[in-house]
Amino acid sequence: MALWAYRNAEWLVAIHAMVDDVCVQDGAMPPGLFGNLTRLVDGVRSDSPDDMFLSRADDMLVAIHRLRSAMRHRSPQADPAAIRRELGHMCRDWMSAARFC
Predict the structure, then answer these.
(1) pTM higher than 0.70 for the full model?
(2) Cα–Cα distance for residue pair 85/76, rounded to 1 Å
(3) So which domain of life are we looking at (predicted)?
């Protein structure tokens, strides 16, 4: 099934856009991003609890939470640049998988 035929294609694109915004920035995340992303994922979870992309979205939420924490409390173990690269990889993987659903 192509992305356009996937029943929740809009949320796939919305999540990709939000996470992609985080990946390209060096500074703080856009205000409200984490809450908006969480609400979007929770909305899909309530409508389609068996959606195959929910676990990936949850992984992105966890990574964004780690990024927020790393930006507040700098330490060698929590490098914001490394977390952004990890999110970039998740974002690319997200769209690659979406093409084949």
Answers:
(1) yes
(2) 16
(3) Bacteria
